[in-house]
Specification:
Elements lengths: L5 E7 L4 H7 L1 H9 L3 E6 L6 H10 L3 H4 L15 H7 L4 E6 H7 L6 H4 L1 E3 L7 E5 L14 H15 L3 E6 L1 H9 L4 H23 L2 E6 L15 H4 E7 L10 E3 L3 H9 L15
Helix pairs in contact: 8-10, 9-10
Length: 279
């Protein structure tokens, strides 16, 4: 079954609204020229990484799907983007932290079995994962983002995936170490913006709609998890033909999953109650 469109979702972990709008010159340039649109999106609570990952893909809150901290991990029960797109005959791909494989394919994560798999019958047809084992404030254990962007591009061109997600923790890890108001963070966002800009036009030429956003924000002290604009509010950039709300609108993170499904022409399950924000 051919889906109506194809879409890539890029999650840059832990970038607050302010740093998106002042430090990502390529993304802002495309928004300024009209090639992209940008809205503010507010994360679920708690604004913790694993909680947000599960909500981004299921469209339900942490209080419903049950992932309420980074330490609480299991295979999520609710319908999610991978399961619904695969059920509709679409091909899915993921280049992400291993948590995404645990939440939406199988738990626990076995590095030998699960770092790389191609399982056309599974919810995630083509998975390429990393674990960040050994991570701490002095040793980030994050892959190069060029490698991650290249891997996603490979999945699009080798397997013609209909939906792909890329997730990187580089900026979240930098933020935990340095905070978000410092020279180190200015430079890290500048580098990420340039790396992303090298691949994004290629994805568009290959016929993909693209959404670039974050799972949550982060404070100048490098914290997130609670209720505060700096911890919850992020930018969402959309490249594609769909119409959306006024630029002043605040997008709810629970709207992201039903929006992706609606763009692909996949039925939205009843569990995803938030309205899509793109026509």
């Amino acid at each position: 079954m051919a889906l109506r469109s194809r879409l890539l979702l890029v999650i840059l972990d832990g970038v607050p609204w302010r740093n998106w709008r002042r430090l990502f010159g390529n993304l802002e340039g495309w928004a300024q020229s009209g090639e992209a649109r940008v809205w503010k999106m507010r994360s679920v609570l708690p604004s913790t990484s694993a909680c947000c990952y599960a909500s981004i893909h299921t469209g339900v809150s942490p209080q419903v799907h049950g992932i309420r901290s980074n330490e609480e991990r299991f295979r999520v029960e609710q319908p999610d983007l991978f399961s619904e797109i695969s059920r509709a005959g679409g091909r899915t791909g993921a280049v992400t932290h291993s948590y995404w494989s645990e939440f939406f394919n199988r738990f626990p994560f076995d590095p030998v079995r699960d770092l790389e798999y191609d399982e056309p019958g599974g919810p995630i047809a083509h998975g390429r994962f990393h674990t960040m084992t050994g991570y701490n404030a002095r040793n980030q254990m994050t892959p190069s983002d060029v490698d991650l962007f290249a891997t996603l591009t490979m999945l699009t061109e080798r397997f013609s995936i209909d939906y792909g997600i890329l997730h990187t923790c580089t900026l979240d890890s930098m933020g935990h170490r340095f905070g978000h108001d410092c020279i180190e963070m200015d430079h890290a966002c500048y580098v990420m913006d340039g790396m992303l800009a090298a691949f994004l036009p290629r994805w568009l030429r290959n016929g993909y709609e693209v959404i670039v956003t974050a799972d949550h924000g982060q404070t100048d002290r490098g914290h997130h998890g609670g209720r505060e604009d700096a911890q919850q509010d992020v930018a969402l950039y959309y490249f594609g033909p769909a119409k959306g709300p006024d630029e002043e609108a605040l997008v709810d993170q629970l709207q992201l999953a039903p929006t992706v499904l609606s763009r692909l022409g996949v039925p939205v399950p009843r569990t995803m109650r938030a309205a899509p924000f793109l026509d």
